[in-house]
Write a structure and sequence with these properties.
CATH superfamily: NAD(P)-binding Rossmann-like Domain
CATH architecture: 3-Layer(aba) Sandwich
Distance between the termini: 53 Å
Number of domains: 1
Number of strands: 9
Bound molecules: NADPH dihydro-nicotinamide-adenine-dinucleotide phosphate, 2-hydroxyethylsulfonic acid
Radius of gyration: 18 Å
Strand order of the largest sheet: 3-2-1-4-5-6-7
CATH class: Alpha Beta
Number of helices: 8
């Protein structure tokens, strides 16, 4: 019988590439996101290409009640989630902290920290009951370092790092694996969402070769295919042209 994986934020970027990778490994998939049309198109693509079952869950991960309801009401055959990919997340704005937009702050905290907690809280009890599972949290270099104007986004990803460590401790008696995957610059819709215009977003990836969503799916693939006695605690993956948050080499 196929195993089941749930990927939050599978309508774009890293989540979509990771869901695709999991489909290749014959996981039945629960894919989530707010953009229904994209979810349905992706479901069609996955079911046409791979012989798997795909369930779309169309909800905003910031909504506590809705998140709980969606997981509580999973159809029987999707209830045993073997892999949870906590990917849905965003940066909103790039401002000095004393000039920051508080709506942006709330959006990032509500999505990256609270949303991740809501979905994990709903999924984890079944994993502990079955004494099996793997949770992969998509963190960031921003969870390891803090950079100019990154303030609240960096704080949310530091929280993801901390929660990953906490999950690893609390899940220990149940044999549940917990992994953090922390990428540097990946060319997805991330910068368009953060900066709100395509010209500024394109500039983020100019003059060097950024990571691709597939590169992060490859890292997740490595983590989820280790033998049962091996847990990958964390992976930090950067473009070759990026040393850390503040040193990026662009061609002239
Ligand atoms: P994208 O913008 O391409 O994808 C983000 C995904 O998250 C979308 O599928 C979006 O779906 C989903 N999402 C965002 N907000 C919500 C919400 N409130 N409810 C449900 N789903 C939501 O960006 P990436 O693929 O780059 O980002 C994925 C993760 O990777 C994020 O956690 C990000 O912080 C992290 N990351 C990204 C890096 C980068 O450079 N790109 C580097 C390091 C980490 P929808 O809009 O349909 O709801
Ligand atoms: C996304 C990478 O460097 O823009 O998490 O924070 S960065």
């Amino acid at each position: 019988m196929n195993k089941t994986a749930l990927v939050t934020g599978a309508t774009s970027g890293i989540g979509k590439a990771t869901a695709f990778m999991l489909a290749k490994h014959k996981y039945n998939l629960i894919i989530t996101g707010r953009r229904l049309k994209r979810l349905l198109e992706f479901k069609n693509e996955l079911t046409e290409k791979f012989n798997i079952e795909v369930l779309t869950l169309n909800f905003d991960i910031r909504n506590r009640e809705e998140t709980k309801k969606q997981i509580e009401n999973l159809p029987e055959k999707f209830q045993n989630i073997d892999i949870l990919i906590n990917n849905a997340g965003l940066a909103s704005g790039l401002d000095l902290i004393h000039e920051g937009n508080i709506d942006d702050w709330e959006k990032m905290i509500d999505t990256n920290i609270k949303g991740l907690l809501y979905i994990s809280r709903a999924v984890m009890p079944k994993m502990t009951e079955r004494k099996t599972g793997h949770i992969v949290n998509i963190s960031s270099i921003a969870g390891k370092e803090t950079y100019l104007k990154g303030n609240v986004y960096c704080a949310t990803k530091h929280a993801v790092e901390s929660l990953t460590k906490a999950m690893r401790i609390d899940m220990l008696p149940y044999g549940i694996k917990v992994t953090s995957v922390a990428p540097g610059a990946v060319n997805t819709e991330f910068s368009l969402v953060r900066l709100g215009n395509k010209e500024a977003a394109d500039k983020v990836y100019e003059g060097y070769m950024p990571l691709l969503a597939q590169d992060i799916a490859d890292a997740v693939e490595f983590a989820i295919t280790r033998p049962p006695h091996v847990n990958i605690n964390e992976l930090l993956i950067m473009p070759t042209a990026q040393a850390n948050s503040s040193h990026l080499h662009r061609n002239e």
